[in-house]
Write a structure and sequence with these properties.
alpha/beta, Rossmann fold, 7 helices, 9 strands, 21% strand, globular
Length: 209
């Protein structure tokens, strides 16, 4: 893969439907180029076999005491109301903000935000995290369902295949990629918009790299 890697302290959005390749690309970035990584696995579906070198934690108190360099947090939020989920998200993002010098990957942004709600410390990470040494990568399959603010704070975009028309329209509006270009994307293909280039020429993940 020959393209710009997200720089330290930057904000990166990976956008695409389930199975399009965004998590594969994120894992490649996180494994090859960064140290001190914390993954927020909102859906709780990541497996150790797919993330070698990472340690999975489901208990927050154990997570914040961990000495491992690469961590995955899977909060036990699936049997509680959405508003309580936000409490889990708030304490997690506060810990990251105070921790400093961390690479954060949020795997599915709309699982920890609302249409008009962003956890306070998630917003703080997006606006003030650069000065605290926090690099942030965020994935979503439904850009039309997350607050516009989150996308507007990102310098880098990796846009994969999208399914819903409203999501394609959202990306066309905020980054200028035509719906026609988005419709032509195949699995593991993506478009790039960052500080170096803005191209409608598809790039493709080569598995095993």
């Amino acid at each position: 893969m020959k393209f710009t890697i997200p720089q330290p302290n930057s904000r990166t959005a990976l956008i695409g439907m389930t199975g399009s390749g965004k998590t594969t690309l994120a894992r490649s970035f996180l494994t090859k180029y960064y140290r001190y990584v914390v993954v927020y696995d909102v859906k709780g579906q990541m497996k150790s076999a797919d993330w070698p070198g990472y340690v999975i934690y489901k208990d927050f108190e154990k997570l914040i005491k961990a000495k491992d360099e690469r961590l995955i947090y899977q909060p036990n939020i699936h049997e509680i109301p959405d508003e309580k989920n936000w409490d889990y998200a708030e304490r997690f993002f506060k810990w990251i903000y105070l921790r400093r010098n961390t690479v954060l990957y949020v795997d599915e942004v709309y699982g920890c935000t609302g249409r008009d709600y962003i956890p306070f410390y998630f917003r703080a990470i997006l606006t003030r995290g650069r000065e605290r040494g926090i690099t942030c990568l965020m994935a979503t399959q439904r850009p039309s369902l997350i607050p516009q603010f989150i996308l507007s704070e990102s310098e880098n975009y990796y846009v994969f295949k999208l399914q819903m028309p409203q999501d394609k329209k959202k990306i066309e509006e905020i980054k200028g990629f035509s719906v026609d270009s988005l419709n032509k994307l195949k699995r593991y293909e993506f478009l790039i918009a960052d500080e170096v280039e803005h191209s409608e020429r598809p790039r493709k993940i080569k598995l095993g790299e």
